[in-house]
């Protein structure tokens, strides 16, 4: 049996699990082809409520085999509240976590174990993974803005879209107009439809490197 990877990244869902490795590779850090070669073990927690469940999170925080733990959680409507809630769950193990996040995310080391927290999209504003990726889609600003306007118009016409999912609809509308159309998020990065040239991508990479020492 292979040894457990001592570096673990917890994400909310399957989209993040597929997309983060492609993003990291596009930013110049090889992830590894086979699971045994992954630089970080990435784990889909099956939703925000599971990722921030105190009992589940404690299992990771208490795991003696871990040397590095990363948490990526969506801000949704409030990045400040999301960071504070995440920080509160980790304070017993990492009491030096900063009270407030910055655009660089939070990374601390206690007793030889490192914890990193990144609140999507940029640790400061509302949003989610798709909000972050939208910042990578703006090479063609006119088309990006048109996709946003089309999404808003669809809502006006009665599209049953939740306000919290506007950024999801926006980026998938934009992807529907690419060639070929309708790629999934991780594949859009792999095929260079989404290009990680925005400053927030550099900030994310710096956070990832600090968290996992890569």
Question: What can you see in these coordinates?
Answer:
- The protein is an alpha/beta fold and 214 residues long.
- The chain folds into 2 domains: 7-127 and 197-212, Uracil-DNA Glycosylase, subunit E (3-Layer(aba) Sandwich); 129-183, no CATH class.
- The chain has helices spanning 14-26, 48-51, 54-61, 79-90, 129-134, 141-156, 166-176, 185-190, 199-212; strands spanning 7-11, 41-44, 68-74, 106-110, 113-120.
- Strands 2-1-3-5-4 form a 5-stranded mixed sheet, with helices on both faces.
- β1 (7-11), α1 and β2 form a beta-alpha-beta unit.
- α6 (141-156) packs across α7 (166-176).
- The protein starts with 6 loop residues before the first strand and ends with a helix.
- The model has no long low-confidence stretch (mean pLDDT 94).
Shape: globular
What is the CATH top level name of the largest domain? Alpha Beta
Please state the average pLDDT score: 94
Q: Could you say what the CATH architecture of the largest domain is? A: 3-Layer(aba) Sandwich
- Sheet with the most strands, sense and barrel status: 5 strands, mixed
Proportion of residues in helical segments: 40-55%
Number of strands: 5
What is the domain total for the residues?
2
Q: Walk across the major sheet and give the strand order.
A: 2-1-3-5-4
Radius of gyration equals: 18 Å
Number of helices: 9
How far from one another are the termini? 25 Å
Beta-strand fraction estimate: 5-15%
User: From N to C, what is the helix and strand string?
Assistant: EHEHHEHEEHHHHH
Output the CATH topology of the largest domain.
Uracil-DNA Glycosylase, subunit E
Multimeric organization: single chain
